[in-house]
Amino acid sequence: MTVQLVPTAGGLGALTRTGERAVVMTMGALHEGHAALIRAARDRVGADGQVVVTVFVNPLQFGAGEDLDRYPRTLDADLVVAEKAGADAVFAPSGEEVYPGGEPEVRISAGAMGDRLEGAYRPGHFGGMLTVVAKLLHLTAPDVAFYGQKDAQQLALITRMARDLNFPVEIMGVPTVREDDGLALSSRNRYLTAEERPTALALSRALFAGRRAGLAAAGAQDREAPGPVADPDAVRAAAQQVLDEAAGLRPPLALDYLGLVDPADFTDVARDFTGEAVLAVAAKVGTTRLIDNVRLQFGAAR
Prior knowledge:
Blueprint: E1 4-6, H1 9-13, E2 21-26, H2 32-45, E3 50-55, H3 75-85, E4 89-91, H4 95-98, H5 118-121, H6 125-140, E5 144-148, H7 152-164, E6 170-174, H8 197-200, H9 202-218, E7 228-229, H10 232-246, E8 253-261, E9 275-285, E10 288-298
Parallel strand pairs: 1-4, 2-3, 2-5, 3-4, 5-6, 7-10
Antiparallel strand pairs: 8-9, 9-10
Helix pairs in contact: 2-3, 6-7, 9-10
């Protein structure tokens, strides 16, 4: 199968469509994490369905001083990754194609959830993200859309937008893919120097330490999958200790936030919380900002 490059909405409309259509939205610089999303989409729609990958670096979700200009553009390599993973088409529109006449006057609001954690450090980011996701959902018209759980707050907001605004699409999350040393796969990992990488590993080590502390408090064995966890305070404290130690490394880790939150609205969980929670972290190593998270279960699932 040869993947088809589609640069325009008109070209999308001309694609022969049989069975379900799945979309995987990316900003390019595809890696194994994106490939896992594409494979999940292919598994869902089967041989008779259609998998469309979007590649668009969205200027609306980059704030002042962020890395829009240096964000990697690797379309030729992206086509190879998409094809190997099972995509039928790559929709790679220009800025003018997505935003004819310039940035849109009317945009999607991320609401209160969009101001928490990531939103507090990146004002306007989630509104810009939801605006382009809404546009791409309209343009690609999928039955199902796949997003990575690494961007947990993004996934939660897209899920909420689809529900609140009655988008006729099923939103699916796919577990985070990690490198052998535990670092969550990200297009921004390529910015890390050899000296910065050991510091960057503190993010995943902190999350895993928090999970182990919770499992120990619950009398359970450590494992990769979310399991029964007790005592949110123990989870937070164990993760924070790893991050505090990393602040003394060279180069140091500069923490933006560590949060243990309810994935329904990204508010902090209370000590008596039950159900699934997200332990999320964001920090800078040098000039590279990284995010990561793990999912935990407190008590019986709600």
